[in-house]
Each structure stands twice: as structure tokens, then as C-alpha cells.
Amino acid sequence: MFVIQYFIPHYPFNRMSHWFSDWFAIILACAIVLGALNLMKISIQKVIKKKPGWGYAVVIIASFLLITIIGLSEGEGFREPGTWFDWLYVYVYTPCSSTMFAILGFFVASASYRAFRARNFEATLLLLAAFFVMIGRVPVGDIISGFMPEGARLSNLASWIMTFPQTAGQRAIMIGIALGIVSTSLRVILGIERAHLAGE
Amino acid sequence: MSTKAKEILALALIFAFSLIFYIGKVLGWGAVRFSTTVSLIVILLVALSLLWILILTIRGHLVERRIVFLYVGIAVALPLFMTLSQRIAISPEVEAVYNTLEGLPEGSKVLVSFDYDPPSAPELQPMAEAFLYYCFEHDLKVIMMGLWPQGPMQANMAIEKVLSDEKIKSKNLKYGEDYVNLGFQAGYEFVIQRMGSDFRSMFPTDYRGTPYEQIPLVKNVKNFSNIDYCFNLSSGFPGTREWVQIAVDRYGVTLGAGNTAVQAPQMYPFMRAGQLVGLLGGMVGAAEFEFLTKWIGKGTKFMISQSFAHVIVIAFIIIGNVAFFRSERKTGLKR
Amino acid sequence: MKYYPSTSARFTAGFGCFLLALLFSLFSLSVLAQEEPAETDTASLSVTPDSIPLEYYPLPPTNVRVKDAPNDAGGSIDVQWDMSPDDVPEGKVKQYRILRAELIEGQRREFIEIGDATAGATLFTDGNTEDGLDYIYKVVAVNSLTQNNEVVWEAATESMPAGPVRSSAQWFDRQRVNALVGVLLLCVFIIYFITRARAGKELFIRKIAGLEAVEEAVGRATEMGKKIFYIPGISDMDNMQTIAGITILGKVAELAAQHETWLEVPVCRSLVMVTAKEVVKEAHSKVGRPDTFHEDQVHYLTDDQFGYAAAIDGMVVREKPATIFFMGEFFAESLILAETGNASGAIQIAGTAAPAQLPFFIASCDFTLIGEELFVASAYLSREPKLLGSLKGQDMGKAVILVAILIGIILETFDIWSFSTLFSVID
Questions:
Q1: CATH topology for B92-296?
Q2: Chain A touched by B157 (CB under 8 Å)
Q3: Model confidence over B128-156: pLDDT tens digits?
Q4: Where along chain A do its domains lie?
Q5: C190 within 8 A of A186, measured Cβ to Cβ
Q6: B236 vs C128: CB contact, 8 Å cut-off?
Q7: Do B145 and B182 contact (CB within 8 A), yes or no?
Q8: What ipTM was predicted for this assembly?
């Protein structure tokens, strides 16, 4: 239906994609209950049977109940500034997710330290490209290459690498992925691929 | 000292520092700033310590990943206390966004989609603020929305910051006439698709609950054909790719984007194909755009930390390769 | 005696009068020139809405053309015009207003304002029309002065009316013919090769290291007596990468069930949990070990991206699995997951079609399926002819694109023909 409505704008095709997307949103919203109940069931079982790591299950249950009760008790305006829900969002949830995101910085450094080895020609090429892009994308690159003429500095080199070789690689991967998606979608639509439906 | 003891000591130190900073904030202590001389001495010390690690590596004492983490932490945190400045070079992608904005006449309607949440705010919020500042300064009308639930809240924060500027305050901008926040709508890329035919069907009211037809700025805005320029701030899905696939390809919208540094490389094919008119990539893109729009915010201030962090990572890559070649040589000799 | 002036006296008097008249005229003209207001100083003059001088009015836009907006579902009319000659930088035109009147049974109703466009614009799309109803349009060039967000005065000039015009829906979007041809071509290739594969033709498929290592990875977990973790990404079942990941899960679950190794599948979405549970259960039944399946193997953690990453990291650090699979769509949490798994010593096989995350997986995992390799996994592992046939069709599609790229490079580089316009889907 979504494929057809891309080519046929006339009613009812344009409306049908809207109806399907509305139904999808409704189903998603209902499905969240399934997941939440499953999480609670497993956590409670862990606590009752004192399985290893049951302390974390207690934290899960307590957090879940706390945020649910607070959100429900504050009514429609639960997201307004000044509510307990907003306080938990700003001072608990936001710092926790920001911290997890910030950990990426450390992991990038350790992954680079471990993985960027000049083992062969291709790896050396990759290493050099990464070096020039990393140093060229920050002002330090231009400070180091300040003696070079305008247009020939590290920032220009980094820009060139991003605009040409990197874009070419991205395009190749994107074309392959797009073809893969079309092919897999066709297999699913035609019923050839049924493994995800737990059938053969 | 055992590993566990070291971990406890590290945690205790972090806790102690956090407590000191918190007490300082509560008691209103002044900001700690190193003078330029002290900053340069600190940089020299860090460089010498890296050199020492390199020498140790050559001698065969490999550094463990926790030392790498420590140096990255130092590289990000210490520059915040330093009084250093650096010249920001403008890249063509950022310049393209600015040039497109410059070409918009007064009164043009600009749609800004805030498709990110607080973890990505350090990179994208400075872009949002600089963009809104430029729009308000040049009398462009701004319609804000979000495909992520936290997007409109980020939009409100950016608006508040920009409206507190004296120059913008003097313009007496009115909500509903000069800018409006339509809020969040669930549905991912389907929202963009529906907006192509009718904005009102996706946003029957704005963020405050005012009916769409009662908002002067948008009451005659039916769909994308009534919008002069779109700007998308995105850190994942749904994001710039969906805006390109639907808004640009189907409805011919002129689109600029601001993305996190990780996602920005994926947008270059769209830029080269002309589907995306300009791109702000990561904090460096934010800093460049702040320079162009003359709104100096956190993007510029935090670039020092980013510069340091990049240099530290490069240093450790070099150290890692030295260790690699040393071990290869050893294996070669053994054979 | 009468006195008659001489000729020279008459001439002198006449010339004097002429000079006086000339001086007076020049003086009058200079006073009038000084009194004419400067354009930038309009605010200081007493120009009121009732007394706008004629020179403030801009010339009207011309050549207003109206037509049904093409390739849409109806309800839209495009209004185009040639800009007013006064529409220049710092000119008299500040904006255009679009007026519309309905024409019902030959009677024209009142013109109402339906929208506006900035100076310099030449197109407005009226998206509020009713199909089958006739409309007339006018475009108004507007000059105005605004101070402190208040309009001080406004001078507007209307164009000639244009119309009548009706909006209608189209059955086919002609701008997308090229997309339709591309999709049909690819479908033809895939169906053709599936048919050939069904007929028994053997199809070659190259080795994919990541998929070859699946059995070895499961075997490692069995030998060490540790768990296998399978992470199907953070997207929902509407995403093809998740479907591909779930498909591979089925194969991995079969191997794990055969070896009686515990397979744990923590998921991020409820619908994925339901599907994955059925797939793993089916896999256990397929190898004749339905009793070894436990409901707790597949469990939901949280929808939140970093909450999910934190939970999985905790599980990996505490339980130290022998093998970790990352198959599906990932975002920023990919490196957090992969680095933690690497530090725990597990063998890691990843597969994603998210280009931004591929470098992180390649740096931290032992094997990585890049992009479309994730989608071929089910065909590769099952070796079913129908699935292999679709791979061949996909490859043919890629070959056609490669040839088109080469042709395009030659034609565009030597400026022979703008080949890329064939692939454009917008005007």
C-alpha cells in the first residue's frame, strides 16, 4: 500500500497510507504495555527467587513504580516545569542518559588506541585519513598548518576527504543497503522470507 | 594497591571534586580560570607526560585503557578552566547554510524541526540558538516543531536563551506572529508525509494548545509549498535522512541541516546531490555557524576541549602504533 | 505730448521680465524639490493611511497564471505571476498577497485573502481548494511601513484577475516514472532469478566471514559453558534491519538449541520481544528440543536507547558471555555495547546497515556484516534456492546501477548530455 501510494496520489490511496500509519501508532502504543509487564514479571521473579543480581531488579521495580505513580498522580500537565515528573526528568533521567552518551568519548579513544594499527597498506591509508580528518576538523589543525597558503591547510584537506572519498564510500554502502532493503522487502511481501514469522 | 582499591580511590576522588564544585556553586564562588601562562604550562605538562608514556611504550611497558580514559577526561575537563582562544575556519558546508539564510527576504517563513534529545544537546543546541538568533535578527518568521518528544522542549530552551539577548529583546517579537512552537507529533516519517499535504492535520494545536487556525503566523500555511526554508536539527531517527527522502524528494522543500558529528558524514551524498543545501556537522559546525552569525555560545567555548581531545586521541594512536611495531619487530626477531 | 518707449527700452524691459520670471520659476522648483520627502524618511512625514501619495503605490504584478497543481491528490492550485517592476532590492514591494474568489453558477463571490508570499516570490500554492469548484485569483503587490511590529501604513496594487481554474486529483505522479521503472526492473530481476533457482539452477555465493563464523561462535560458547547474547538492535519490527536480525536469530537459536547452550535475547521493543520469543521457541521445536526453551530467554528491557545500552553492559560485565551477536539497527549505543563486549573477552559478530555505526563495530568486533551482507544472511545460512535467487536478482540490479554510473560519468564529464536528470524525482 505504501509503495502504491508513492506513485498514485489519488484518493483513496493517499488516505490509506495515513490510516495505516495511524493504526501502526495505536498498535505501538498498546504494545508498550506488553513490554512493561514482561519486565516487571521477570524482575519480580528475580527478587522472589533471589537470583544473582536481584538487587538491580529491586531498583528496576522501584524506579518503574515511582515514575508511573508520579506521572499518573500529576494529571495532564505532568510534563510542565515545576512538577515532580519534570524534576525527575531534568535531574535524574537527563544526567543519566547524558552520562551514557558521554562514555562514548572514552570508548572512541580506547577503540582508536586498540584498532588503528598500520598493519598493511589499506590500514595505513585508513589511519592517515583518520589522522587528517581528526586534526583538520578542529582549529588546532589550522594552527599547525598555519604556514601553508590559504586553501592548502589541514582543514581544507579534511574537507576534501569528507567531500570526495568519504562520500563515495557512503554512496556505495547506501546503494547496496537500499537494494538489500528492496530485495528483503520483496521476499517478505511475496512470502518467500517467513523466518521472522516463526515459520518456514 | 589492588585494582578494587584503585577503583574505590578514583570514585572517592570524583565524588570529592563533585562535592567541592557543588558547594562552590551554592556558595557562589567565582569561576576558576587559569591565566594564559598557567594554561600553557598545563598543556606543556600534559605533553611531557604523553612523551613519557611514549618512552615507556618503546621500553615495553604498555599503557592500559584506563590511562587512556584518564587522559581523555583531562583533555575534556581542563580546557574549560583555560583562557585560550582559537581561530575558527569556516567550511563550505556551513557557509552554504549561512548563504541560503542570507538570501531569504524579510518575512520569509522558516520551518525548524527539533529532532533530538538532551544527550545530543551539547552539539545541537548551540546550532539551534545561533540559527534562531539569525532568524530573529533578520525578521524571518520561525515555525518550530519536533519529531522527537523532547524536541519542542529543546526548542523552548533555545527560544528563551535567544530572546534574553538585548538586541532581540528590543524587537518585541510576538509569539504566534513572529515565531510559534507547534510541539511534538508521534509517527516518525509519516508526520513529514502528512505535512506535505496538510500541516494542520498533524498539528491541530500548537505547544500551548491554541488551535492552528487561530495562530496568525500559520493560519495560511497549508503545507510545505507555503514554507520558504526548512532547517532540521537531528541526531538519529527520524532525522535529516527522512526529511530529505520525503520533504525534499516529494515536495521540493529547500532543506538545511544540523547533525551530530557521527551522523554528519552520512549527509554528504545528499549535499553533493543538491538535496541538502548546507550542513552543520557536530560541535565544530556549531562553532563555525556561531562565528558567522555573531552569536558566540557554547559551541565556540567548548571547541577548545574538542581540540584537546582530538590531539590526545591522535597521540594515543601514535603510541599504540609504536607498541604495535615494537611487538612486530620482536616477533620478527624471534623468528 | 505722449511718450512712446524706444525699441531698446522695450527690449530691456522684456528681457528683465523674462529674467524675473525665470528666477521665480527656478526658486519655486527648488522649494518644491526640497519639500519632496526622501524615501527613507517616510516616518518623519505625516503619511497616514488615508493620505498615501500615489508614488508609494507599487506597480502591480503581471501575467498571473493559474493552474491545477500537478501530481497531487487534488485540493491544490498553483498561482504564478511575473514580479512587479518595483520588486527590486530596497524597492516598493514588501510582499505579495493572494486573493481568491469562488465562481458559482457564473456569479463571482467576494475576493478573500488566502495567503501571502515574500517579495521576490513568483509562485504560491493554494492548498485549500475544493475539487470541481471554479476559482478566480488576484495577486496584490504590497508596500508598507512597519515600526515596532505595527503597520504604520500600507499601499497595495492589485493585478488583473486570472481564472477560472479548478483543482483535481491525478491518478499517477508523472514525476516518479523513473522510480517506477527502477523498482519494476529490480522486481523483474529478482523474480526471474528466483524462478531460475526453483528450476534447480545452482547459484554461486561468495564466502562471508561473519556468517561462516556463526557456528564456530556458538560452539565456543558451548565449550566454555557460558551464555550467548543476541542483541537484535533498537528499532521496531517495521524496520527491515530488525526483520533481518530476527531471521538470523532463528538460525542462531537452532544452533544453540542443538548444542543446549543458553541463548539470551534482551530486546528494546515490545513487538520485537513477541516476535523473537516465537522465533526462538520455533527454533527449539524444529531441532526436537521444545523443552529446552525458557520464556525468560527473550525479555524486554526498556525502550530508552541509553537505558538499554546500560542494562546490556551491566549484563555483559556480570555474566561474561562467551559470544555476543549484534544484528539489526543500532545508533550511538553501538560503540558502548561493542567496547564493553570486547573488554569482557567475548567473541563478537555484528551486522548492521547503519553506515554511521559500521566503523565502531569493525573496530570492536571480531566479524562484521557490512550493510547488505546483513540482508543476505538468511539466504546464506539456509542456502534455500528461492532466497539465493533473490540475491542474484539484487546483484543484477546493482550491476545495472554500476553501468548507469559509468555511462553517467562519461556523458556528464564530457558535457554530452545531462544524464543525471533521468534519475531526478523533483522538478
A1: Rossmann fold (3.40.50)
A2: no
A3: 999 999 999 999 999 999 999 889 989 99
A4: 1-53, 118-161, 164-200
A5: yes
A6: no
A7: yes
A8: 0.84
